[in-house]
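Tip: read the tokens left to right.
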């Protein structure tokens, strides 16, 4: 697949679409690899319970997500402009005609798989932290119902505790 200039002169413009698609793949790969690094930072911040770092990472993740979506959209537009289908079918057809770009596509697929694995790990960590927080809140809420002082004004024994001896 190629694009020619409006004058029909193919010299110099024949490679415009393949170069644009290859460039887009490289940019998309770099963006997904960067997103994987953000997820690794998020995992470390969760393990360290660094809420301040999590706030910044969350903002950067949102920006990165928008960037990746824009790159995928641009890739699909470039593929269709070059006469290929959008999506995986189109990129596979493109790669059949331009095998030199297969390594970049494989890097992108590897980065996407790494990102998916890190995202799963981060999700598990968040769920684990959430469950621990919910358990702590349950314990604290139960403690609110236990009296601090008995009817005679003396400190009440902790819930479930028994006095062993009195002096």
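Filled-in amino acids:
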């Amino acid at each position: 697949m190629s694009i020619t200039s409006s004058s029909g002169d193919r010299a110099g413009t024949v490679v415009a679409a393949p170069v644009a698609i290859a460039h887009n793949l490289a940019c998309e790969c770099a963006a997904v690899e960067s997103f994987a690094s953000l997820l690794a930072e998020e995992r470390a911040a969760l393990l360290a319970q660094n809420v301040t770092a999590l706030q910044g990472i969350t903002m950067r993740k949102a920006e990165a997500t928008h960037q990746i979506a824009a790159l995928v959209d641009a890739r699909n537009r470039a593929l269709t402009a070059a006469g290929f289908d959008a999506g995986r079918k189109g990129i596979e057809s493109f790669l059949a005609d331009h095998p030199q770009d297969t390594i970049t596509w494989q890097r992108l697929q590897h980065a996407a798989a790494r990102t998916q694995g890190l995202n799963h790990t981060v999700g598990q960590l968040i769920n684990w932290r959430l469950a621990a927080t919910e358990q702590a809140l349950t314990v604290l809420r139960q403690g609110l119902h236990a009296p601090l002082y008995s009817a005679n004004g003396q400190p009440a024994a902790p819930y479930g505790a028994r006095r062993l001896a009195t002096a």
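The radius of gyration is 29 Å. The helical segments are 16-48, 51-81, 87-97, 102-144.
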